[in-house]
Amino acid sequence: MAAKLKVGIVGGTGMVGQRFVQLLDQHPWFQVTAIAASAGSAGKTYEEAVQGRWKLSSSIPEDVKGIVVQDASKVEEVAQNVDFIFCAVEMKKNDIQALEEAYAKTGTPVISNNSAHRWTPDIPMVIPEINPGHIEIIEAQRKRLGTSTGFIAVKPNCSIQSYVPALNALLDFNPTTVVASTYQAISGAGKNFTDWPEMLDNVIPYIGGEEEKSEQEPLRIWGSIVNNEIVKASAPLITTQCIRVPVTDGHLATVFVSFEKKPSKDEILSRWLNFKGRPQELELPSAPKQFITYFEEENRPQTKLDRDIERGMGVSVGRLREDSLYDFKFVGLSHNTLRGAAGGAVLIAELLKAEGYIQAK
Ligand SMILES: NC(=O)c1ccc[n+]([C@@H]2O[C@H](COP(=O)([O-])OP(=O)(O)OC[C@H]3O[C@@H](n4cnc5c(N)ncnc54)[C@H](OP(=O)(O)O)[C@@H]3O)[C@@H](O)[C@H]2O)c1
After folding, report:
1. Which long-range contacts (CB under 8 A, 24 or more apart) does 262-267 make?
2. Which of 5, 126, 253, 314 has the smallest CB count inside 10 Å?
3. Is the CB of 187 under 6 A from ligand 1?
């Protein structure tokens, strides 16, 4: 068996970082060899650094407990222990951009959960089942950064996975207008009910910046590479409302959509059932076998029952029916910290390894 690639988690002590640690435990291709965070955590073992703030129900994997957390700003020191990194940090946008570029310039691929570089023209923002071809822009990015091996690739906002996969399977029918309302879990803010007791028995009708991301990022995912830049698609028109609801994990969306060529209900169901992407073709370790699952029951998908479908990497849809104002309406659901964050990023890394962009240094 080939040796595993050495991976670092920058921001490994945070909510998303902990998910990376959990998902990479016993990963067939990747082995965690470095964890970095703020100077406040540096020098502690991982177990000490997350003491009192480990947020997952599974325990801390034995292999990482004793890893000494490094200071993420000491880029060369962290980079020398790894073949590539995942990055999920809570810092100012400019600081994240500079940090990720600094890692890439050491020749280290960076797979990022942060939003800082989502609109940098030569940085691919990828949902591996939908736009795997965007990774081809990495060659142009490497020239700009002056490295033959380093680069940055990012994943999109967690909200859009609850409706974009279902719409993507229907692109042949030219969707023209989409209205989506998202009902988003508190883990999306890096919180649980202990940290955020105000969310118990409550709904907050505002998530800063979320609606713009939810409306614009799908268009970049559906965009194309023109002159070494990713140019966003011009359709469909998307409008959203993003609402915080009292659930731990799972973002649910209600969606209305109209098409230029209106499909039948059976055509839509058949597209969802048969939708497969590059991760399924390549049989990547984290790829869901069935990317989109349709529930016939009227009261599904439910956040608590269905968010873990396909180990949290599948998306669920239900309640497809014709609408009086739009052509159709339906409900979608995805796990925000698995498919929508750390799991989505691990799948990007697997795609990039399989396609030859990430290798042992
Ligand atoms: N939660 C989600 O569902 C979700 C989904 C998609 C994307 N994201 C994005 O992922 C990123 C992390 O989110 P999170 O929820 O995991 O946040 P979090 O729980 O607050 O964790 C933040 C991480 O950043 C580190 N950090 C803070 N300041 C730093 C600095 N100056 N230098 C280096 N590291 C620093 C923290 O280290 P210390 O422990 O040492 O402070 C910690 O590891 C954010 O950009 C967020 O927008 C989150």
Report:
1. 262/173, 262/327, 263/170, 263/173, 265/320, 265/321, 265/322, 265/328, 267/173
2. 5
3. yes
